[in-house]
């Protein structure tokens, strides 16, 4: 009798099954709905709205045209992120994946709040800055705090997903993604630049689509482990 090794499914991961398929549909529909609302809301704004300069929040802000298009988009994104958090918990069985799912659920809840607590401005310009210097509404304060809880937990989620996945390449891809997300978030916070809107849209692309890729895409499928098998 000799000992050999063979690959067996990783016991730290569960097959997605029907539940995973349903969660994937909800996640993709919600997040795609957010970006569809983003495009539609942008089209509905006056020519003065600049996607390169102005925040996404301005599309749902006070003074925006048809603000509830973007409000709906935020709520769709929240639903998509929550479904993705559940998908991570279903697909992976590890402490790091559980932490990632929890962080993403926090981000989902904050996204829902940020959409309903509308910002005070539509445009990211000097007039808005002057207005906020004089007075800022309570709902705008809530929006700002909720936005922080959208971005920071979502970036940390990417970090913990990098730990949860199997394979050096997948881990490296997610680690680099987390670094890029952080850099883009910091650039977005530089409100004095002319590209804050562009940076915010780029970071949203990464923050919203990376978790469902890990939770549902075959490329990030839980790996296999090499286990000893006795052979006669």
UniProtKB/TrEMBL annotation:
Keywords assigned by UniProt, alphabetized: Membrane, Transmembrane, Transmembrane helix
Transmembrane segments annotated in the record for this chain: 22-48, 68-90, 97-117, 146-165, 170-187, 199-216
Keyword Hydrolase: no
InterPro entries given in the database record: DUF998
Pfam families named among the record's database cross-references: DUF998
Record keyword Transmembrane helix present: yes
Protein name, UniProt field: DUF998 domain-containing protein
Organism from which the protein derives: Dactylosporangium aurantiacum
């Amino acid at each position: 009798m000799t000992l050999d090794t063979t690959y067996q499914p990783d016991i730290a991961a569960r097959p997605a099954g029907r539940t995973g398929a349903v969660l994937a549909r909800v996640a993709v529909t919600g997040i795609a709905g957010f970006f569809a609302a983003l495009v539609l809301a942008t089209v509905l704004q006056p020519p003065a709205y600049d996607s390169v300069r102005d925040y996404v929040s301005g599309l749902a802000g006070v003074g925006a045209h048809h603000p509830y298009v973007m409000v709906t988009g935020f709520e769709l994104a929240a639903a998509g992120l929550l479904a993705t958090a559940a998908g991570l918990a279903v697909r992976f069985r590890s402490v790091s994946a559980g932490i990632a799912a929890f962080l993403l659920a926090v981000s989902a809840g904050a996204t829902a709040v940020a959409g309903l607590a509308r910002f005070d401005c539509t445009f990211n310009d000097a007039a808005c800055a002057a207005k906020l210097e004089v007075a800022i509404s309570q709902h705008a304060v809530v929006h700002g705090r909720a936005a922080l809880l959208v971005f920071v937990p979502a970036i940390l989620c990417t970090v913990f997903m990098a730990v949860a996945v199997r394979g050096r390449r997948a881990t490296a891809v997610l680690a680099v993604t987390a670094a890029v997300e952080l850099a883009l978030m910091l650039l977005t916070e530089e409100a004095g630049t002319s590209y804050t809107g562009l940076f915010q849209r780029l970071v949203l692309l990464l923050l919203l689509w990376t978790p469902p890729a890990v939770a549902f895409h075959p490329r990030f499928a839980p790996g296999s482990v090499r286990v000893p098998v006795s052979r006669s």
